[in-house]
Design brief:
The structure is a single chain. By secondary structure, the protein is α/β, with parallel strands linked by helices. It has 17 helices and 23 strands. A hairpin with an 8-residue loop joins strand 4 and strand 5. The longest helix is centred in the C-terminal third of the chain and has 19 residues. It is globular and about 70 Å long.
């Protein structure tokens, strides 16, 4: 006889009432009869908003992405919008990516908003996430939704919420919205659409977005015709915008990986559609070898992250990490502002607490500010909103995201792709390369090396394991890491920092989050945090050394690699 916990049984019984359609009820009955473990995974909790919105596996249940969980979120969001704007005609814009069921789920969301007498602008087909962020402001909407699970595996989907400024929701709004959602019963969801309030949008917004990308991401390049580019959309949405953006900016020598150009939520040619992972760009690298490309660029399914590969001093194509790309892009942007005579000491760049400390070095060098926030671009968008008198130049985070200016308020692989090509083309015209520009920065500011260890822990037991690991690191911090004394500990959950040498403690100004960061005497930095959108615990390591001459880079880089390996071994994270 199959045993099912009473609380799981109570939750499933709710979903076996007439509120839920016959197909949903049938699937639940099948799980009860044949797969109680999957039943428990599907109902043991409610999906919650994380650093990048709400993501989960598609299926039936409260812990899954489906018509009812998204319907409940949307109904709660509609209620919240009306509470906040009782006398206003409200409007929202909805986009979706290439994932399986994204178009269907987007229509469900549109139906619920329209049933609540809220005007809906719905993209006719899949579109990049940064275009959704742009469209919120362009259409003067109160809210935006994009259906995406970014680079997660094919069985996932998700739901990101954007506010009127084009940025994702942040405290206290996110908590208030969640509370409103939790007050809703599934019987409260209005699924019957008012089709008169749903307007289909496409080319007009595309043109406005692409033109804005070209305006913000292109400068006075002279070698655009000569730059040899390989681009892959990894079966995602960027195929709808990036080729046209590059074309309008004047790039003619663009080779598209055709096998990956067709949007496909099953991502048939890659194990994971994540440009952070080298194997995702294997086909692009082969094409680069064939056509002797200068630069390779690949984007994730919703086109907010990009991976870049360039030629090193041995003429080998090498994949840069997100920190390296961010440093080159940020320095280039600041330099362009300086050339244009518009750089002032009130301008700022943005980064995150787990990204490279080299961003602060750049800010110090140019005499501007580097604002640092929690993981996720919603915090950079909040910086722009909170400091309207300070101009935002650009910024990014280690996870292959970058934002150029403030016309989009989320990481934007479309404009960042163009910017990367601008850097490469200008470097080529000066007998340099993108790679060489990076090494020049290491020579000038110090050679930084970052590495991410990401441990996947799935399901209920995985969540408990991650929780216990964070408790152990928090309650029993190491006195030394790789034989270097830990001198500073930042605990963002308690909101405190402690100088361990002088036994001094102070409050952190950044909002609380489950993140720990250790700083050692030799300048190393190690951060650990559970992912907000995936069943993972992540460890971010940063080490540094001086680079006296570019020709010494391989030697210094190898020494830093060894140092990172020693830190990983010491902390037993592999």
């Amino acid at each position: 006889m199959i045993y099912i916990e009473p609380e799981i049984l109570d939750a499933t019984n709710t979903w076996l009432t007439p509120t839920f359609d016959e197909d949903t009820q049938h699937q639940i009955k099948e799980l009860i009869a044949n797969n109680p473990d999957e039943l428990k995974e599907s109902f043991y909790k409610n999906l919650a908003f994380g650093t990048g919105g709400m993501r989960g596996i598609m299926g039936v249940g409260t812990n899954r992405i489906n018509k009812y969980t998204l319907g409940k979120n949307t109904q709660g969001l509609a209620n919240y919008l009306k509470q906040q704007n009782p006398h206003k005609d409200l409007s929202v814009v909805i986009a979706y990516d290439c994932r399986n069921n994204s178009n269907t789920l987007a229509k469900v969301v549109a139906n619920v908003f329209s049933a609540n007498n809220i005007k809906v602008y719905l993209f006719s087909e899949l579109r990049p996430t940064p275009e959704l962020s742009f469209a919120v402001k362009h259409l003067d909407c109160d809210c935006g939704i994009v259906l995406t699970a970014s680079h997660n595996p094919p069985e996932y989907n998700g739901y990101k919420v954007y506010w009127a400024d084009g940025g994702q929701i942040v405290p206290p709004q996110d908590t208030e919205i969640i509370e409103t959602i939790n007050d809703i019963d599934y019987t409260d969801i209005k699924f019957d659409a008012n089709e008169d309030l749903i307007e289909i949008i496409d080319q007009d917004i595309d043109n406005a977005f692409i033109n804005a990308s070209v305006k913000n991401g292109s400068f006075q390049g002279t070698e655009r015709d000569n730059l040899n580019i390989v681009f892959t959309s990894l079966h995602g949405t960027s195929i709808t915008t990036i080729p046209e953006t590059l074309k309008r900016a004047g790039y003619k020598n663009v080779h598209i990986v055709e096998e990956q150009a067709e949007p496909d939520g099953n991502f048939p040619t890659v194990k994971s559609p994540n440009p952070e992972e080298p194997e995702a760009l294997e086909m692009a690298m082969k094409l680069a070898h064939k056509v002797n490309a200068d630069i390779v660029i690949g984007t994730d399914p919703d086109s907010d992250r990009l991976g870049i590969a360039v030629r090193n001093h041995k003429n080998e194509m090498v994949l840069l990490n997100g920190n390296q790309t961010m440093i080159v892009m940020t320095d280039f942007l600041i330099g362009q502002w300086l050339k244009q005579g518009k750089l002032s000491d009130t301008d700022f760049i943005g980064s995150t607490i787990v990204s490279t400390p080299m961003m602060q070095e750049l800010a110090n060098y140019y005499g501007i500010e580097c604002k640092v926030g929690l993981t996720g671009f919603k915090w950079i968008a909040k910086m722009i909103k909170d400091f309207p008198k300070q101009a935002f130049i650009g910024g990014g985070e280690e996870s292959f995201g970058f934002m150029v200016g403030d016309f989009v308020r989320d990481k934007d692989a479309v404009t960042a792709t163009l910017l990367a090509c601008e850097i490469a083309s200008q470097a080529k015209s000066n007998n340099s390369t993108f790679y060489n520009e990076l090494l020049k920065l290491y020579e000038k500011h110090g050679c930084y090396k970052e590495h991410l260890v990401s441990l996947t822990k799935k399901g209920i037991s995985g969540a408990e394991e991650i929780k216990q690991m964070m408790i152990d690191f928090r309650n029993n911090p190491p006195a030394t890491i790789n034989n270097s004394k830990v001198v500073l500990l930042e605990d963002y959950q308690s909101g405190t920092a402690k100088d361990l040498l002088n036994d001094k403690e102070w409050k952190l100004e950044i909002p609380k989050s489950n993140v720990l960061i250790y700083y050692t005497e030799d300048g190393s930095k190690i951060a650990c945090r559970p992912s907000g959108t995936e069943p993972k615990i992540k460890f971010y390591m940063s080490v540094k050394d001086t680079l006296d001459d570019i020709t010494d880079f391989e030697k210094v880089n190898s020494e830093l690699d060894n140092k990172i390996a020693e830190i990983s071994n010491d902390l037993k994270i592999h």
